[in-house]
Design brief:
This protein has about 475 residues and is mainly alpha-helical. It is built from 19 helices and five strands. Among the domains are: about 100-205, Response regulator (Rossmann fold); about 260-475, Hypothetical protein af1432. Helix 4 (about 110-120) links the parallel strand 1 (about 100-105) and strand 2.
Amino acid sequence: MVPQVALARIDGSAAALLAAWEKRNAPLERTRRMLAEPADAQTAASGDAVHRPAGTAQSGVNRRTGRDERPIRRSELLAPFRDRIPEEGRVSLEPLIDKPTILVVDDTPDNLTLMSNLLRDEFRVKVANSGEKALRVLEASPLPDLVLLDIMMPGMSGYDVCIAMKAAARTERVPVIFLTALDGADDERTGLELGAVDYITKPIKPSICLQRVRNHLQLKAAADFLHDRNAYLEEEVERRTREVVAVQDVTITMMASLAEARDNETGNHIRRTQLYVRALAEHLRNHPRFAHYLSPRQIEVLYKSAPLHDIGKIGIPDRILLKPGRFTPDEFEIMKTHTTIGRNAIASAEARLGITAEFLTCAKEIAYGHQEKWDGSGYPLGLREEEIPISARLMAVADVYDALISRRVYKEGMPHEKAAAVIVEGRGTHFDPDIADAFIALEDRFRAIAERHRDSDADLAAKAAQLEAIAETIRL
């Protein structure tokens, strides 16, 4: 059993895990001890039976502890494995049952011999006769499971070794027990403050020392279990998060593509406007008017949400949406409703989720407000200046520029210089002045994005065939 003072160092959940760990590993521990202990005098010649612990009755139940400690015969334990292995291929299974490794550090040879003899039946023992050698041992793999460390040594003291161990990420979790002749309260407090898990004074009581080593190894096993479990959970959370983000990105692209499939835009419009919005946001992230909003996280949200700016067009009749010429006043009123349709569609999806997702909130702002104008002459609400969400103001510049320069089935695109002049002319009337200034500063970058993701002849031919198929359906 683990002492209560030891259990006090870990929380209740760790204590429960430790109890479960002990229960699960009880058979392994019993097997390890069975293989490590010699057979009793009556069966030593055959090596078949494990000796009965002191205090065990003939029935196999320990009178003191009440535990079943009936001996297990090695032949019974190993027979299922031996029967499956050809005679010439059989090897001893005992070395496969690993022992914890203890590093003993002491400058006195007699003390190293004493501790080695005490520990070697249950543990693999490594020794070092100085602090410097101990650190060299700790550089090798695998690390020991526990270090028994003298304090008063020539050169590096035990305190120095402990400080070095706790300062290194590789060794900071290896438990240290000081084993020393210094028995003052201040010495013990110093050792524990440096990170030691225990402090044992010389001369030692062998049975007590051995049990304290066992207890701390059990605590280390529980701590390792929790550490590994936490690492696994963190990795699993990261993996699931990547999956959610991937599904989110695919869903956004799919929704935007559905709207684009019924419009005269090509799929490259989605990509270009995404990149324009991100370029503007990154340029303005330190601007006094926008710094509070344009955090790295928000810029990523804007980038993800931008493709949904025209999602509401999916609700516009084909006879209006696909009309190549100018709209009549009535047709234009119907066309303007795409902002409201888009906002409502995203809000409906958000309501079904039952939670508020930041990218959907941003998408609603963009879909509903990207046709608003700085002077209040836009739609659907006629918002002006700071009333218009920043996300919608950014999209207004990106969307208008791309609409001007893009080739359509029914028209050629406007040259960059003329499109840029339109943006400049709309500064302070159609567009936020500072965002228009950012566009002017980024003209070369906008031009490069447009060229890299331009619509090819094949793209336009495919879009023309798609629109013709839709038109034929309408005629039928």
